[in-house]
Specification:
Strand order of the largest sheet: 1-2-3-5-4
Oligomer: single chain
Helix content: 40-55%
Structural class: alpha+beta
Shape: elongated
Radius of gyration: 30 Å
Distance between the termini: 124 Å
Number of strands: 5
Strand content: 5-15%
């Protein structure tokens, strides 16, 4: 009989209990982590929200890694997604293919992290259609919850955060009016450039740099590409924007001072 059988008691380790807790909270961690990164990308510099987002995503993938669900591939995929999003927001104007690829990498990596790594599965485990269907449905459900947390949190923040004292403490609401003594000497000097000729220091496509009276100024052309070295004239100044047009090659590079009457 089994009277002489050796009994081995399984004792769950701390890492296993922690991994089970993290995987249970996985959708919440994922949604809040991406939301924190989104807030960080919408604000200048790098601060608490960026650190919070990275920590939450790290905890999410740590738990799934210990549970045997996430591997190096999933972590690398999400890291690539975050890098692509950072490039899209900080280096590329607008929102295009780089941002879309970044979001897809994060979502695919997060989805893969809740599906068992089949090549590591024991030989006695029968993997059939029902097995795969169960885990794919679980992955979709967790991603759905994470997206609900992400978009719901973004909506709540955009709706109610501007009304809180925390928001007002982070945002400068004071208006710097000329009546209060605030002036911009730089704007006054730019107004004096109107009608002056200069030299294209770089190619204007349409933005670039010109030399006027020996000083460099960032400008934009009136729509045409102006080659480096061409003579230009300032035709409009709107706020901090200086618009120039190309002049014939024989035009003087500097505007002569008007003779005193």
């Amino acid at each position: 009989g089994l009277s002489g059988a050796k009994i081995i008691r399984f004792q769950e380790e701390v890492a296993d209990r922690l991994a089970r807790l993290i995987t249970a909270l996985g959708p919440l961690l994922l949604g809040l982590g991406v939301l924190a990164l989104w807030i960080e990308f919408k604000t200048p510099g790098f601060g608490a929200f960026g650190i919070t987002g990275i920590v939450l995503l790290a905890i999410y993938f740590f738990g799934h890694y210990v549970a045997g669900l996430a591997g190096v591939e999933e972590i690398a995929l999400v890291t690539i997604g975050v890098v692509l999003l950072a490039i899209e927001i900080f280096l590329i104007p607008g929102f295009g293919i780089t941002g879309v690829l970044g979001i897809l990498c994060i979502l695919i990596g997060a989805g893969m992290a809740v599906i068992p790594r089949l090549h590591d599965a024991p030989s006695w485990l029968e993997i059939g259609p029902s097995f795969l269907e169960t885990y794919i449905q679980n992955a979709l459900r967790q991603l759905g919850i994470a997206l609900a947390v992400l978009f719901g949190g973004a909506w709540i923040l955009s709706r109610f955060l501007p009304k809180t004292n925390i928001y007002h403490s982070l945002v400068l609401n004071q208006q710097l009016n000329a009546e209060d003594g605030y002036v911009s000497s730089d704007m006054d000097s730019k107004k004096n450039l109107l009608g002056k000729n200069g030299l294209a220091f770089t190619t204007l496509r349409p933005a670039g740099t010109v030399l006027i009276d020996g000083q460099r100024h960032d400008v934009i052309s009136n729509g045409d590409m102006i080659p480096k070295g061409a003579t230009v004239r300032v035709i409009a100044i709107e706020g901090a924007s200086i618009t120039v047009e190309a002049l014939p090659d024989d035009a003087p590079q500097s505007t002569p001072e008007k003779a005193e009457s």
